[in-house]
Design a protein that fits this description.
Blueprint (H helix, E strand, L loop, with lengths): L17 H17 L6 H8 L5 H5 L3 H28 L5 H17 L2 H13 L3 H24 L6 H20 L2 H20 L5
Helix pairs in contact: 1-2, 1-4, 1-6, 4-5, 4-6, 4-7, 5-9, 6-7, 7-8, 8-9
Length: about 210
């Protein structure tokens, strides 16, 4: 199992106890390996190496478990995006550096594929569950704001609609990369991101 992240765990930035974090990290890996149907309290306990009943002591119902996991995944992604935004602001419009930093993050997400797979599973479930959709919408709005802010800082033509289109493109690139053979993923990400980030930088910065 990959090392547990230390990023902000929830969309509300509330701190997690070590045990709760352990359970949610185990839940993330269960969903990545078995899909959302495989997410049960017992499966989480087994994956975490904890006694049966540990997960239900913290998250009594399956809905509570799924909701907490959605917050955990969205919060981890949001913290990564916030960190990237800080780094991008220091690029001073240098497109090559912006591509390099974004590629580094996306490559890590693809290498640690459990996070992206869990997000995909939860996103599908959110299409049928308004409560989950609201949790994921909060993270997506945060990412759209970051992208829009970067374009504004560079005096690039920007709008919420354009930022949303770019975010959707990022999503598509990431999931397409997961379907590529492992040896071709880095090259695919680099080519795709260069095209998008050139557009983000604007013609004057390309």
């Amino acid at each position: 199992m990959p090392t547990t992240r230390t990023a902000s765990p929830t969309t509300t930035d509330a701190p997690l106890s070590p045990r709760r974090r352990q359970l949610l990290d185990a839940g993330l890996h269960v969903v990545a390996d078995e899909g959302l149907r495989g997410l049960t309290h017992r499966a989480v306990d087994r994956r975490a190496g904890l006694p049966q009943g540990s997960c239900s002591a913290y998250l009594r119902t399956r809905k509570a478990l799924v909701s907490a996991l959605t917050e955990y995944v969205a919060g981890t992604l949001a913290a990564d995006v916030d960190a990237l935004a800080v780094d991008l602001q220091q690029c001073d419009g240098a497109a090559e550096r912006a591509i390099e930093l974004t590629l580094r993050l996306f490559q890590r997400w693809v290498d640690e594929r459990e996070l992206l797979l869990a997000k995909l599973e939860l996103s599908l479930e959110a299409s049928r569950d308004p409560d989950l959709a609201a949790l994921l919408a909060a993270w997506r709005a945060r990412l759209v704001d970051v992208v829009d802010g970067i374009m504004a800082a560079r005096d690039t033509e920007h709008s919420t609609e354009r930022a949303e289109a770019l975010v959707s493109s990022f999503d598509g690139i990431l999931f397409a990369a997961l379907l590529k053979p492992a040896r071709g993923r880095a090259a695919f990400l680099a080519r795709s991101l260069e095209l998008l980030m050139r557009s983000l930088a604007g013609p004057g910065d390309a």
